[in-house]
Amino acid sequence: MNNPITVETTIDATIQDVWKLWTTPEDIIQWNNPSDDWQTLKVDNDVKEDGRFLFRMQAKDGSDGFDFGGKYDKVLLYERIEYTLDDGRKAINQFIENENGTTVIETFEPEVKTPLDVQKEFCQSVLNNFKRYVEKENSETKTMVTEIRVEFGKTSDELIQMISSTSDEQFNEIPFDGSWSVAQVGEHLLKSYGIVKVLNGQGAETKRLPGKEIVQVKKIFLDFDAKYKSAEALLPTDEPIEKEELLRGLQKRISQINEVIQTKDLTETCIDRPFKGIGDLTRMEWLHVILFHTQRHIHQIENILKSLEIVSGEL
Q1: pTM reported for the whole predicted model
Q2: 5-137: CATH number
């Protein structure tokens, strides 16, 4: 390299998280600017040897802009990226994990028209923005893990309490034609909790925000006016259900789900089964499917019990 410029920063995150957010187009668009006056409008990024990249950067007022493009010469996962820009200049990105997190070092040949100090300040500012983005994403992910643990704990406790407190006379009673009993709702949920096998199955690196589909999942399950037909495999039996056996089954599955929350990487995408209408979900998103699905059926149990009280009062 001729007269190279070097900038660096240390980020409070794992090298895996840093690499993912450095290379994923949806993330690059969010952080690849030196200040709020700039933006990245388009990102193409094929991170492999001989793969090409193109970032369109532009001032928001349209006063300046340029294409940052080239070809990758060498890619060592979680270690190093070497590339050649379209104007022939060389650059190297290094990723070094240490006790403080991950250090990212950028070394590049400067272009001749812009003063060296301006180029260095511009690139250091972009790198600083990347650091802020990664640490914010890392913090938000930790917050999401805490929130799903707390919310699922509260919701599962409410489910167990409602089923436990339902009288033996009402437990298997169907309040009106087309309805389920409390027992049948519980069995349906027990069967649905079998999805924990997918959560414990194969996971892959997620190429997008790990909670992107949570809002859509919530809209599906907590729209109480919408009616859905249960998958045949999740339909409950028409035979009487034994309460204590159902409760033991639910508590076992709930314990397995909580273990996933505590021990698995919730940002990974589960590749063993897609969610109908959306596609592959992360473990975090599947956990919200479980959460909102349970809340939907708690609402159903409340309505069943109210209907049974009305019927009982009319007799």
Answers
A1: 0.70
A2: 3.30.530.20
